[in-house]
Structures are given as C-alpha cells and as structure tokens.
Design goal:
Layout: H1 8-13, H2 21-32, H3 36-49, E1 54-60, E2 66-71, H4 78-84, H5 109-115, E3 118-124, E4 131-137, E5 140-147, E6 152-158, H6 165-169, H7 174-191, E7 196-201, E8 207-209, H8 214-222, H9 224-228, E9 230-237, E10 240-247, E11 252-253, E12 259-263, E13 266-268, H10 271-280, E14 290-291, E15 293-298, E16 304-305, E17 316-317, H11 320-337, H12 345-364, H13 370-375, H14 395-399, E18 426-431, E19 435-440, E20 443-448, H15 449-466, E21 471-481, H16 484-492, H17 494-499, E22 503-506, E23 511-518, H18 526-540, H19 544-560, H20 571-583, E24 597-601, H21 602-608
Length: 611
Amino acid sequence: MATAQPRHDEIHEARIIRLPETVVNQIAAGEVIERPASVVKELVENAIDAGATRIEVTTSRGGKSLIRVSDDGQGMRRDDLVLAVERHCTSKLADDLMDIRTLGFRGEALPSVGSVSRLVITTRHGSEETAWKIQVSGGKITGPAPAALGNGSVVEVGDLFYATAARLKFLKSDQAETNAITDMFKRMAIAFPGIRFSISGEDRSALDYPPASLLERLGQVMGKPFCENAMKIDAEREGVRLTGYASLPTFNRGNGQRQYFFVNGRPVRDKALLGAVRGAYADFLARDRHAVLALFIDLDPHLVDVNVHPAKADVRFRDAGLVRGLLVGALKQAITEAGHLSSREGSTSMVGAFRPGYENAATRAGAHSNVGAASGWARPLDDVQYPATGFSESQAKFDATNIPSGQVETVSTDTEPNDYGQRLGAARAQLHENYIVAQTENGLVIVDQHAAHERIVYEALKAGMENGLASQLLLIPEIVDLPEEDVTRLAGFSEDFHKLGLEIETFGLGAIAVRATPAMLGETNAPQLLHDLADEIGEWGSADGLKERLEYVAATMACHGSVRSGRVLRAEEMNALLRQMEATPNSGQCNHGRPTYIELDLKDIERLFGR
C-alpha cells in the first residue's frame, strides 16, 4: 500500500521547535562518535593536549562495555570539569578558527560521548588539593564530587551507545572493533613517539611502547624489519615540511594499511596523499603491492583545513598540488638515492629457511652425537642429499657454453672477472639458467638475471623519454571537442606534452587539434587521453598521467625485451650484467617491486655452519 503523502497545507502548518539538549548531543554523537575507536581517539587526543607523558588505555568487548583512558597530564580544575561536559566548551581554540594548533578543539567529544554512554571523569589539577569526579549517563549530569586521584585524569566510558540502541546494532564484532581500536592506538603512538603508550584488556594482547625516537617507535609498532628497510625522508618546499620514513620498494605489502600520514601531528586518512604515494612508487611496485611508510607533513595551520570532517579524519590543503609534488618528489629522490639497495627481507628469509631443517636433523642426530645435539647443527651423513646441479655445476660445462647473446651488452671494463672488490662482486656460476651467483669481499650475491636486466632496459627507456620521445604524425589531425576551460588547461601544458611526443594546438574556443601522439603508445584513443589529462590538470594542477602511461608502456617493453629466464649466459656476459647493475639507478628492484638480487653476508653463511 502506498504511503499517504502530506498535503501541501499540512507541511506549512509544521512549526519549528528547539530540539532538547539530549537529542542535540545524540545527533552530535552520531557525527563525532562513529565507533569505539572514535572514542579512544578523542580521549587520547585530550590527554596529549593536556601534556601527558604517559597514556594507558584499557578496553573490554571491543570498547562496547568499557573504555578507560588514564594519563598523567595537567588535569582539570573543578570549574573546568563542569564546563568540559557541556557542548562547545574548549580550552584549545583561539578566536581564529583556521589557527588550529591542538588535536581536540571542537568541544563536542565529551558531551557527545556522555549522551550515548555512561561517562565518568576523574581529574586533579596541580593547583587543587583534591581530585574531582563527574558522571554523565545518557546526557544526565551528576556531580562534581570529591574523589581520590594522584594527578592527571582518568576517563571511563561504559556501555557505549546504550542510550541509542539502534547505533549499537550497527557496530561490528568485538574482535573487529578491538582491531579498529588497536589501529587507532598505533597511529597515535607513531604521531607522538616521546609519550609512553600502553593498551590492555581482556579482549586483546597488551602492548607497551616506551618513549623512543621516531624510527625506534616505528620499529615498536611495525616491527624491526621495517627499520632495516626504511629510507629517511626530509624535504621542504615553500614552507611545507615533509619528514618520516618510507620503505624500499622491495619491502612492500598486499594492502595500504601500513601507510600512516600525519598533518601537524594529526593522524589523517587522505585519498590525495595515498594517490601521491602510488604515483611515487609506480615505477617500482606492481599495482597490487603497497609501500610501508609513516610521513609527517608540517605547515602553517592557515594553509590546511582540519575542520572538514566531523571526526577530523580528512584534511584539505590550500595548495594540494604543492603538497602532492613535494610528496612525490621526496619519495622518488629517496628511492633513487637508495636505488642500489635491496630489501634485507629476502636474505633474512633465506637464512631462516635453513634453520628448521638443521634443527630437526640435530634432534634426529641426538643419539649419534651428544656434541651435535647440543650445538644444534649436527646432521647424520645418511640424511645428506647432494644436488645434481646448482653449485656443483662443472666449470667446464659453464665455460663451454657458446650460445651467442644479443640481449646482454658486454661492456668493456678494466675489472678482471675474479676481482671481488666490486659492489656486486664477480660472477662464479649460473643456477637453473636464471640466477647468477657472484662472490664479493664480504659474502655472496644471488642475482635474478631477468629482473636485473628488466630494470636496466627500463631505465634506458626512461632516459630516452627525458631527452624527448619519438612521435607518430597523424595523416589527418584529430579534432577533440572539449569545454573551454579544459582547452585552456591543456594549451598551457603543450610544451610538456611536446617532450613526451604529444603534439596539440587549440582549434577554436572549444576544441583541440591532435597532430601527433607518442609512438610508444601505438594506436591511441586521443579523445580519451585528452579528457583524462584535462581532468588531472583540473584536480592536481599537473599532467603526470601521460608520463605515467608512457612509463607503464616502457615497463612492459622492458619486461619483454630483457634477458629471459632460462637463458644460459657466458661468464663475461654475467659480469657485464653485474657492472651494468652497478651503474644503473634503482637497480635493487625490478619494475614490479621484486628484488633483483639477494645478498648474504659471510657472517650469516658462517653462522649457518656453526662457525
């Protein structure tokens, strides 16, 4: 049955009323408090703004039953405590709404939380002889009353959303909410490494992060392997400062959950920043792989609006193009400077792969040798299986290979093949027609010949792009109709397009004539290309899309034009490839983010043999 619609005269008869304060607070809570993790964020921000050096978080049932945040900050006086649970009362905001220098500034968090839960605040200011406690249950305030507390504040939130049962039904499972709180907790811990953070509860494993430097805190949160594979970022442009750490391309993950961004100390999730990171790593990572990083953007508060989102999760930069350019440029520069490095994950995993087998063998050998069982490295002879190929390949067979190769350029070098002083050493063998084993002064290097040559060819193609790319002239210029503003935008970048092989010129007020397209792109959909470029310029003030397309084509060409796996190489060819790698930028990883080589230190090899 159709629902009866109100008559026009009935609509005009409705009167405007003032909503009850409780309803107003519950509406505000719906905007500010999305889930238990939002409460943790607001309370931890308040503790940080209060000057806390120690913050402890306790949760139960994913924060649904209990959230307790304790800190050693300056606390609140009795009169301030009364105002703290009223809407739009704050000590953190000056007259200028754009001059935000604190984390919590709206004055909505505590009254909003109190309107949908059982809130208890106990606090003591250094100037007062006693602590004070106030309770807010479903918006009803009780107190303040004297209480016992040494210093700082303790905020307890119980039965979250009990006053708005409908909101409670939309929360996820206890484990999912616990994970969300943990993620928020880690973001705050990274943002302020000088503060001790701890979190515990019956629904989680306890975490404790003592005060540390930024890199040490990142190691506490993201693990030691990140620190071993991190590049330091420090750049500045027009008053915008970018600092932090980002992973080598070969140290990557399957999702972007370990990408942390902070703007003036505030954790944010910004699609524009995520897009800039993807652009910076586009040359080095496959589309389904993501870098690991923690980046801090510091700028004048007037140049960024942190008041865009009710939960303060998004920001808006006055000059988004400047921030994007700084981020992309700084990351690309760091990757280039560390381009010869490869992730230590591969070598660590390789060494670790040997350990379980040897340990099991030692256990089996216990009856044969007490010494071997004690050392953990003994292995009975009847368990040893020698490989038929690999390191045992005969040198005669290796030297007798006369298959010509036009795919690896043999460069002239003064270095003798047995000179191990080179960074990647001297080639000693080829395994399974794909892996080059080279000896260095301090260990050995295993090189993936296809991945290594793929990077060499790709960098050569990129160098050709910088010097100007060939274009293919169209017999008949293609006329593309565009809005007048897009024509103006594209015309302003015509010189940049010319360097990339795209020849355009205005054709009246609302059209562009395309006279040539980049030869690398082959058959090109010119209208679609121009529409995409115009949209990008309108959003970012730059036109990197064409360059990214060309680089993607170059990467594909490099992959198909490189030394293939299964190709037998002569000794001089292998050494030539090693020398080319040493002279090529970014040779530590292929175009898809995989390492081109793994390095084993001599000490690691000796440790495997118990020496």
